[in-house]
Structures are given as C-alpha cells and as structure tokens.
Amino acid sequence: MIQEIIETKLHNELNPIHLDVVNESYMHNVPAGSESHFKVVVVSEAFEGLRLIARHRKVNQVLSEELANNIHALSMHTFTREEWQAQYDSVPESPMCMGGGKG
C-alpha cells in the first residue's frame, strides 16, 4: 500500500513530531481504490532553518522512488515545531449538529 510506504519512509527519515498522510485520490478522476494523489502534513525538527523549497526537496528526496513510479500528485505542508504550535496549538471544536429536527 503506497500510503503506508509514504508514512514509513517519512517517519524513518524525518522523525516527525506530527505526520498526516491523506490519500486524496478519490477527489480525482481515477479508478476507485487508487493511490495516486496524496497530501502530507509533516512537522519535523529536520526543517529547522530551511526555506520552504528546501523542505519540499527533502520530502521529494525521501519519496523519490514513489514519485517516479506511483504518485501522480503530492501536496506538502511542512512545518517546524514552533510553526506548527503557533498555527495549530489546539484542535478546533466541531460545530453543533443543526439537522435532524433538533431545536
């Protein structure tokens, strides 16, 4: 499974504080069950002092084989610990349900 390979490689190479790998293939015109379009959110100390392009190059290097053979599109969101905490320090609460005739 490509998603598991992505998760394993990023975990092993970047030692992330936070890692989300989302298969977004269903949002595209591909057969059901495809693994070709992904979004990754990586928070890692390995990104300290690096510009965005250098962070993306680092992720591309880790996933070079998958990008050459399996992945059609990869959206990357790369953060240092401090950037992540400043932007996403808490999880937003879910809104109350307004449907179902509850008043």
H and E order: HEEHHEH
Enumerate how many helices there are, as a single number.
4
Order the strands across the largest sheet as they lie in space.
1-2-3
Tell me roughly what share of residues is in helical segments: 25-40%
Could you tell me the radius of gyration in angstroms?
17 Å
Instruction: Identify low-pLDDT runs.
Output: none
Q: Give the helix/strand class.
A: alpha+beta
Question: How far apart are the termini?
Answer: 45 Å
Mean pLDDT: 86
The main sheet comes to: 3 strands, mixed
List the helices and strands and how they pair.
Elements: H1 2-14, E1 18-23, E2 37-43, H2 52-62, H3 64-69, E3 73-79, H4 81-88
Notes on the structure:
The relative contact order is 0.19. This protein has a 3-stranded mixed β-sheet. By secondary structure, the chain is of the alpha+beta class. It is built from 4 helices and 3 strands. Helices cover 37% and strands 19% of the residues.
